[in-house]
Every structure is written in structure tokens, then in C-alpha cells.
Amino acid sequence: MSSESRGEVNPLETSLRLQELVYGLEIRKVMTSEVITVSRQTSMREAQALMKQNAITGLPVTVAGSQKVVGMVSMNDVMNALEKGKMDDTVFLWMTREVQVLHDEMPLSFAIAAFNKYPFRRFPVVDKDNRLNGMLTFRNINLALIRELSQQLNKMEHLIEDSEEADIFDLVKVYSLQQHDFENGGKASTEIKKFLKRRKVPSGVIRRVAVACYELEINLVAHSLGGMLGFDINPERIRISANDLGPGIESLELAMTEGFSTASEWVRSMGFGAGMGLPNVKKISDEFEIHSEPGLGTMILSIIYLKKENGKEGDNDDS
Amino acid sequence: MKLKQIQEALEIDSLYGPVDCGNLDINSVFTSDLLSDVLMCELENLLLITSLTTEQVIRSAGIIGITAVVVTNNKAVTRGMIKLAEEQDIVILQTRFPTYETCLRVGRVMEAS
Predict the structure, then answer these.
(1) Burial of B82 (0-12, 13-18, 19+ CB in 10 A)
(2) Sheet holding A58-63, edge to edge
(3) How many CB pairs under 8 A join A and B?
(4) B27, B34, B39: best to mutate for the A interface, most A CBs within 10 A
(5) Which of A173, A179, A211, B86 is most buried (most C-beta within 10 Å)?
(6) pLDDT digits (tens, 9 = 90+) for A85-142
(7) What is the pLDDT of residues A44-68, one digit of tens each?
(8) Average pLDDT score over residue span A267-285
(9) How far apart are the C-alpha atoms of A102 and A171, rounded to whole Å?
């Protein structure tokens, strides 16, 4: 860390809420258990090959038998050895000897503190006998935090769900949809429709929301590898978002063209795949966005306003 | 027109719905085997004529508030469809006539009333 940035607030240090979130999590629940190690006699060339094969940037050096960690050899060490033409040296000569280990029973908050304190990007994790048991990187922490956060969000959603009172208009809810699970495709729309009906939303608006939602649900089960449909409702507008895990859309222009479809015969036999789903969602939304990347996934956002002045003309009839 | 007039015209063998559903009003008719088209339909007191027999037909019907669904070609109505229809107050009628013949017969009833 440079001296200039020392004055800046470190987000990890100040986030007490984060500490609270990970308080009960032990490092061993978060770490990677399958660790690739090298011995002191391994050559730098072999170490480099191992890193390359496994796409990792650091290896713990252990004593065979006791599994005690005596050093860490990193990509940096490999580069230094390469520069000097010493790739046939043993890792023992080039490794970092000051190794900071973490104990697998420590809470994750300790690990976060360790990432703040030391310049290392990965920590060997040891058991109570000091035997290497796993590795911990920022990636592990990120994944654990995402997992914890989504659990917390789930709890919050259930709290909201329990309040059946018709005067509460705010709702945040996420539905998970599996690939080809047509049986459950449509449940979210039915529930949202009921929610809006109970709150006396004009039927024209309810219809648009339910149709947009249903088309997006069907899209998720018919075309994606699985994903989520999220609702964020307040008295102003209904925001529907669909996120999936792939395969992504090759050409958005084609996907938004009426009549274009990549649906299988099976999907078509159920009455879908006419290539009207996405164009229709766009048509009935007040705001519509689509982002997609082949191999990564697709994100669709549809916003429908509840207030007449903002909504689509002529569509918000109260009949 | 009333649902019972359609029932007679189509010589319906099986009907899934409440006992008094014959008195339901039908003001418009829509025919499609493409659910996206069904979903964009904005007619009221609607009768849907389709040869699809998936639960998604009933779900789609529920979303846009369809009154009754006629399943043509004597296709088997599944238990799942019946359950969903009950939950959403949708009547299902099953006819042996193909879709075209069904449309003609319903059209005649519409003209007469």
C-alpha cells in the first residue's frame, strides 16, 4: 500500500456489518480444501508448470509426511528465477519463508483482517496440529459473502411475504427457475397478479405485468440453463428482472425480431417458441433493457409504471 | 352468447367447471396454438379455442383472465390442467371436432345471437 492511500478509508476495516455477517463462519467452511502443494525439492520449472496447469498463482511448500507449511512459492518468485535463468533451482531457494498461516477454526472475520494486514493474496489454512488443510483466497471470501448475503436477503423476503396486508405496497422477491421446469414456469406471474389485484391495481396494468412476467418465466425455463426472476415493487412502478446463467444470446437484434426463435421442437409443441416472447415483453413495458453475452448469460429488465401519466398510453384502462 | 349455447353447438362430451357455468357470458373468441399470441389478446369474456393440452395453456388463460378454453380434436385434458383451471375459475370444454370445424360452429352461434 502506498503512503498516499493510507489516509483513505479501508472498506474492509470499517465494515462492522460485514464482520457481523461472517461472524459465525469458520474459515474451514469457506476455504478451498483441495490444495496443490510442492515439496522443498521441487524445481522452479515444475512449480511453474503446476501453476500453469491449475491456473493458480501460488503454491504452498510443505514437508512431506508432516504436511507442515514451510514456505510459499508465487508467480513472482517464478519470474525472479526465470530472469536469473535459475529455473532448475529447488523452490526452497526461491520461496517466501515468512508464511502467515490461518487456523481452520478461526472465524472468517479474522481472515479478512489478515488480508488487510499482510500483503499476501492467499493464505495456507492449517488444522490444530499445524498440518496444511486448505487455502484461502479473496475468491473464497467473495463467494462466502455472496452466499451469506443471499441467505440474509431470503430471510428478509420471507418477512415481507408474511405481511399479507393489502396496504403494504412494497415487495422485493426473487424466484428461482430451473431449466425445462415448465411446471413451475408461471407460478411467479400468478402470485404477482394476486398481489397486485389485492392492492386494487388497474386490471390493464396487472395484465401487462403478468404477461411480461410470464413470458420472462417461460424464456428462463425454455432457453436458459436456469436463472432468477426478481420483482421490486413500489407504489410508483413494478420492476421485473430476469437473470440467467447462460447460454447467452448470440444476436440480440435477431432475438428482438418478431418471429425469430431458437426454440426446440419440444418447446414449440407446448405452444411456445413463436418468436414473440421478447418483442411482446418490450411492447408492453414502459422501459425495457436487455444485455446478453454468449457463455455468460442474459439480463432482462422490464419496468411498468403504476401511475397513469408515466405509463404507456391507452394501456392503463381501469376496466 | 352463453357458454351453454357453445356447449350444445360443439356437442361437448366432457366439461370441467362449476355446475352453473353454462350461464357464463362469452363476448369474444380467439383461436391460437401459440401462447405468446394468446397472451397479447386483450378481449373480455373470452373463449379460447386451441388444440394445445399443456398446463401452460391454462396458466396463460389465467394470466389474461380467459373465461373458458375449448380443447379441440378430442385431445386428452390432463389432471394438471383441470386442477389449475379450478384454481383460476376457468372452464375447460373438450370437443371431438377439429379446430376449424369448432370455429365454424362457434361462429354460427355468435352470428345467431
Answers:
(1) middle
(2) A38-39, A58-63, A68-74
(3) 72
(4) B39
(5) A211
(6) 999 999 999 999 989 999 998 888 788 888 888 888 899 999 999 999 999 998 998 8
(7) 999 999 999 999 989 999 998 888 9
(8) 88
(9) 42
Taking only the tens place, the pLDDT of each residue in B60-97 is 999 999 999 999 999 999 999 999 999 999 999 999 99
A189 touches chain B (CB under 8 A): yes
Q: What does the pLDDT average to over B29-34?
A: 95
What fold characterizes domain B3-112? 3.40.1390
Q: Alpha-carbon distance A218 to A296, whole Å?
A: 19
What residue type is assigned to position B92 of the chain?
Answer: I
Name the fold adopted by A163-310.
Heat Shock Protein 90 (3.30.565)
Mutate to test the interface with A, among B30, B46, B51, B56 (most CBs of A within 10 A): B56
Taking the domains of chain A in order of start, what are their residue ranges? 4-141, 163-310
What is the structure's pLDDT at A12?
A: 53
Nearest beta carbon to residue B56 from set A186, A203, A277: A186
Q: Indicate yes or no: CB of A190 within 8 angstroms of CB of B36.
A: no
Does the domain formed by A4-141 have CATH 3.40.109.10?
A: no
User: Quick check: B56 contacting A, CB < 8 Å?
Assistant: yes
Interatomic CA distance for residues A69 and A23, integer angstroms: 27
Q: Which of A182, A190, A280 sits opposite B39 (nearest CB)?
A: A280
Contacts of B88 in chain A (CB under 8 A): 190
Q: Nearest by CB to A214, from B54, B63, B80: name it.
A: B63
